[in-house]
Amino acid sequence: MTQGHQVEGKATFEICDLTVSLGGGAVVLDGLSHTIVAGKINALIGPSGCGKSTLLRCLNKLIEPTKGSIRLDGVDITDIDVLTLRARVGMVMQSATMFAGSIAENLAFGPSSLGQEIDRPRMKELLELVSLDPSLLDKDAQKLSGGQAQRVSIARSLANKPEVLLLDEPTSALDPAATRTIEATLIRLRDELGMTIVLVSHSMEQVERIADTSALMLDGKIIETGTPEHLLTGVHHHWTEQFAKGKLSSQKENQPN
Amino acid sequence: MLDILSELLPRLPGILGALTLVSLAIGISYWQKIGLEKSMSVAVVRAFVQLIAIGYALQLIFDSDNPLWIGVIVGVMLTVAGLTSGKRAESIPKARTIALLSISTSLALTLGTLLALNVFEPTPQSVIPIAGMIIGNAMTATSLSMARLRDDLKSSRSAIESALALGAPSRVAAQVQLRTALATGMTPLVDSTKTVGLIALPGAMTGMILAGSPPMEAVQLQIVVMFMLVGAAAFASMIATFLTYRQFFTKTHQLKL
């Protein structure tokens, strides 16, 4: 693993020697170690099947690792009650699944599961935070566009007041305009709330646009870490170069002739 | 065996008469190239042999008046029901154990209540046919609930994991699926209870009327049977749903599929 231009900061997650193997001997994560920096947008990038979603799901214990440890603010997550951990570490899935009922009911789901209450002014604040019109609060959540639903699903996680937000390719199903709105929301969460964000992405352009730090994954390992600029310009693992080249060629395609 | 045959012989013309209807059905199958002739013939022969065998066995048991035989017969019924139901839900871990446990607990609760309240005499003549009815209905409820829960958990994976990620315990995250599975197991019996007497005269009542009992006496028995079967289906669905649910979630609220 080569490293360069490391982003300094307090560690939120310290991942050590993490291994996830499935029945039948398939290894999804292969002794992976990584640090998630507090108050930054930490990107995980790599081809599909490299294990980035699995890594994300280990961080809020939706998956039990076979081996290795994860520490959150210095405490091993196996020592934290799992439901408390999930309230502290919010997660947004690839395509948002809205629960039956209004947006307000969706926003109340997390707090009420944890035995807490959330009032309407706070709900409106949350919608504003994700650039949604607060008057939508009583709208049927099943009738939202993909981009709106994804923003509600971010707001729904924020209702638990998490310290960390995990996002699993949150924009892969969205059009460019909706993608930009989500990206702006993430920047806002980092800048205004100082939130630690872990963003799984398949797009080098997106990582370059918003991430402070990035880790390139391949075959269940992290092969490169550093700032997005470093991934694009430094001396690398051959796969990093391929990734960068892919990025450059797609950039060329986007340029008007 | 001889006395059974001598009893059967006078009824043979009636059986042969009913058989002409079966040959007619086989004829239609052949004519319309449905291809069911072979399995129809096998079914007819099997039904004949199985029913003669159980008739013979029941006659022996009633004559011997040894309560141990009740246990043996009910044990065989339970085993066959458990294996049949478990096979329907094969992809669920421990499907057979779950099915057997659900059906036998349902039988114990229902039959136990009826015997404790003195609704039936604890004689082989009442216990064996009643246990048969309970087991048959509990088996259907068990199969339906198990298969439905498995299918729904698979198809709702993203909704369930979204709920888990918000800090909901697995029972809350799978609430909708659990309710649907319960309802699915109980619906056939609730429906037939609603329409009983309007669409078809149920089996126990038909049997008594054919055997010459006064209709009101038959109705009394049928009401008891109906209520008992609703109870049996409810118990079986509940236990099967709960045990199946436990197979798909870990103690740390993770969904494993």
List strands and helices in order, with pairings:
The complex is a heterodimer of chains A (257) and B (257).
Chain A: E1 2-4, E2 11-21, E3 27-37, E4 41-45, H1 52-59, E5 67-72, E6 75-76, H2 82-88, E7 89-92, H3 103-113, H4 120-129, H5 146-158, E8 164-168, H6 176-193, E9 196-201, H7 204-210, E10 213-218, E11 221-226, H8 228-233, H9 238-254
Parallel strand pairs in A: 1-11, 4-9, 4-10, 7-8, 8-9
Antiparallel strand pairs in A: 2-3, 2-5, 5-6, 10-11
Helix pairs in contact in A: 3-5, 4-5
Chain B: H1 2-8, H2 12-31, H3 37-64, H4 68-88, H5 95-116, H6 124-155, H7 157-165, H8 170-173, H9 175-194, H10 203-210, H11 215-248
Helix pairs in contact in B: 2-3, 4-5, 4-6, 5-6, 5-11, 6-9, 6-11, 9-11, 10-11
In a few lines, what is going on in this structure?
Chain A is α/β, with parallel strands linked by helices and 257 residues long. Chain A is built from 9 helices and 11 strands.
Description:
Chain A: This is ABC transporter domain-containing protein. Chain A: GO terms for molecular function: ATP binding; ATP hydrolysis activity; phosphate transmembrane transporter activity. Chain A: It comes from Rubritalea profundi. The complex is a heterodimer of chains A (257) and B (257). Chain A starts with a strand and ends with a helix. In chain A, helix 3 (103-113) runs parallel beside helix 5 (146-158) and helix 4 packs across helix 5. Residues 248-257 of chain A have low confidence and may be disordered. Helix content of chain A is 38%, strand content 25%. Chain A contains nine helices and eleven strands. Chain A has helices spanning 52-59, 82-88, 103-113, 120-129, 146-158, 176-193, 204-210, 228-233, 238-254; strands spanning 2-4, 11-21, 27-37, 41-45, 67-72, 75-76, 89-92, 164-168, 196-201, 213-218, 221-226. Chain A has a single domain (2-98, 163-254), classed as Rossmann fold, CATH 3.40.50. With 257 residues, chain A is α/β, with parallel strands linked by helices. Chain A is globular. In chain A, the strands form two sheets. Chain A has a seven-stranded mixed sheet with strand order 1-11-10-4-9-8-7, sandwiched between helices. Chain B is mostly helical. Chain B has two domains: 1-64, no CATH class; 66-248, no CATH class. Helix content of chain B is 80%, strand content 0%. Chain B is built from eleven helices and no strands. Chain B has helices at residues 2-8, 12-31, 37-64, 68-88, 95-116, 124-155, 157-165, 170-173, 175-194, 203-210, 215-248. The longest helix of chain B is centred in the last third of the chain and has 34 residues, at 215-248. The radius of gyration of chain B is 22 Å and the shape is globular. The mean pLDDT of chain B is 90. The chains are: A alpha/beta (257), B mainly alpha (257). Chain A binds chain B through residues 60-64, 82-84, 86-87, 90-91, 93, 95-97, 99-100, 109-110, 113-114, 153, 156-157, 160, and chain B through 158-159, 161-169, 172, 176, 250, 252-255.
